[in-house]
């Protein structure tokens, strides 16, 4: 019996030695973006009157159905603003532009109309002091712009009303991500605001009736957790009827999220998986996936593991061979080796399996021999 116990113990020890752990973390990376549209180089644009659109050669009629169109331009301003529009009432659209400016990339001021709309969409602002500045305006839509790598705030709105701020990416600015002061009746929805140095979203003094829904506030502030602050009154950070709130990297994953600041606002429906695709926002942002679209079923690195499975395993969904050992993640998982350990490969997994089988075989043989010896001793 004693020899049998020693054999079993050695077998357990052998199996433990041959097993491996799968707890390695994937490092966080900063998103980058690409510019795929064709752009025409253009000087900075200053418009201070409705007539200037036509005078500067921009197509359109100034109505909502046929707005003046500033699009597909590449503006690198050596001084002053990239695009500065003020004191107009005719409809216009700024879209698909790439802008850099040492001051404000896009500045809109004193643009007010009860009927016309002013749209800024699909632009990329990079390396500017202030991404988008809006002052004393209404009826403006800021949609799907990327505001990145600024030396100041991504977006600053002062004395505005009826503004839609939707689907923008505000990233890595050396200031606030988005800041509003003295503003009301504005919707901020489905924006991704992350890695900004001061604060993600600041609702400053005299803000009221701002609705903030379905946004992602991650890793803002020097401590990576200064995501939001509300010093206004009557702003709404969640919707009871829709059971919808926002996402904050410093939420503790249970209960409501208390918005910092004297307003005492509460988000009753915070989440860490905004698009509900089972991959948490931190993993999606850290791996350049889309935290606003279900993309768990995609396999962008062609390693045979979809993004959802890579999230479960902690492997890199944009790298087919996460541990750089020459075997892609899918092959490693299928073979039972560790896709996060370069010392664990399908090849040495096979040789370990062979050793395991061999040791079991030897042990069984030794046991049988011992049993035979015992029997002979009794006879
Ligand atoms: Ca997603
Ligand atoms: Ca994959
Ligand atoms: Ca992978
Ligand atoms: Ca590998």
What can you see in these coordinates?
The chain is an alpha/beta fold. It has 2 domains: 2-26 and 323-378; 40-298, Pectate Lyase C-like (3 Solenoid), CATH 2.160.20. 20% of the residues lie in helices and 27% in strands. The protein is built from 6 helices and 25 strands. Helix 1 packs antiparallel against helix 6. The longest helix is centred in the C-terminal third of the chain and has 33 residues, at 346-378. It binds calcium ion (CA) (4 copies). Residues 321-323, 325, 327, 332, 339 line the site of one calcium ion.
Shape: elongated
Main pleated sheet = 14 strands, parallel
| Rg for CA atoms | 29 Å
User: How many domains in all?
Assistant: 2
Let me know the number of strands: 25
Give the rounded overall mean pLDDT. Answer: 88
Hetero ligands: calcium ion
Helical coverage, percent range: 10-25%
Fill in the CATH topology of the largest domain.
Answer: Pectate Lyase C-like
Q: Report the span from N to C terminus.
A: 19 Å
The CATH class of the largest domain is identified as Mainly Beta
β content, as a range? 25-35%
List segments where confidence is low: pLDDT < 50 over at least 5 consecutive residues.
1-33
The CATH architecture term of the largest domain is 3 Solenoid
Instruction: State the secondary-structure class.
Output: alpha/beta
The number of helical elements comes to 6
What descriptive keywords fit this protein?
about 375 residues; alpha/beta; Pectate Lyase C-like; 6 helices; 25 strands; elongated; disordered N terminus; binds calcium ion
Q: What is the gist of this entry?
A:
By secondary structure, the chain is of the alpha/beta class. It has two domains: 2-26 and 323-378; 40-298, 3 Solenoid (Pectate Lyase C-like). It is 20% helix and 27% strand.
């Amino acid at each position: 019996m004693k020899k049998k116990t020693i054999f079993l113990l050695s077998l357990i020890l052998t199996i433990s030695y041959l097993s491996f752990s799968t707890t390695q973390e994937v490092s966080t990376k900063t998103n980058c973006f690409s510019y795929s549209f064709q752009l025409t180089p253009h000087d900075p644009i200053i418009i201070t009157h409705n007539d200037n659109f036509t005078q500067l050669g921009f197509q359109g009629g100034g109505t909502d159905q046929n707005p003046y169109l500033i699009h597909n331009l590449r503006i690198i301003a050596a001084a002053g603003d990239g695009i500065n529009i003020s004191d107009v009432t005719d409809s216009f659209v700024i879209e698909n532009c790439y802008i850099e400016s040492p001051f404000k990339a896009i500045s809109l001021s004193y643009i007010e109309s009860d009927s016309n709309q002013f749209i800024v969409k699909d632009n990329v602002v990079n390396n500017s002091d202030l991404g988008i500045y809006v002052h004393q305006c209404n009826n403006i839509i800021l949609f799907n712009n990327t505001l990145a790598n600024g030396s100041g705030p991504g977006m600053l709105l002062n004395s505005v009303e009826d503004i839609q701020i939707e689907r923008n990416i505000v990233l890595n600015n050396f200031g606030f991500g988005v800041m509003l002061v003295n503003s009301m009746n504005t919707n901020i929805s489905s924006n991704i605001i992350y890695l900004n140095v001061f604060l993600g979203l600041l609702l400053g003094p005299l803000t009221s009736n701002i609705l903030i829904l379905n946004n992602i506030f991650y890793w803002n502030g020097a401590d990576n957790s200064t995501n939001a602050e509300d010093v206004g009154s009557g702003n709404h950070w969640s919707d009871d009827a829709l059971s919808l709130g926002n996402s904050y990297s410093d939420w503790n994953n249970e209960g409501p999220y208390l918005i910092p600041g004297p307003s005492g606002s509460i988000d009753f429906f915070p989440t860490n998986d905004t698009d509900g695709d089972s991959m948490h926002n931190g993993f999606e942002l850290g791996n350049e996936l889309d935290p606003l679209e279900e993309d768990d079923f995609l396999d962008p690195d062609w390693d045979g593991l979809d993004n959802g499975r890579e999230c479960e395993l902690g492997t890199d969904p944009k790298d087919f061979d996460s541990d750089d050992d020459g075997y892609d993640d899918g092959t490693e998982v299928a073979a039972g080796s560790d896709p996060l350990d370069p010392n664990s490969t399908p090849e040495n997994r096979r040789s370990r399996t062979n050793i395991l089988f061999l040791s079991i075989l030897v042990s069984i043989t030794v046991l049988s021999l011992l049993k035979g010896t015992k029997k002979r001793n009794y006879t």
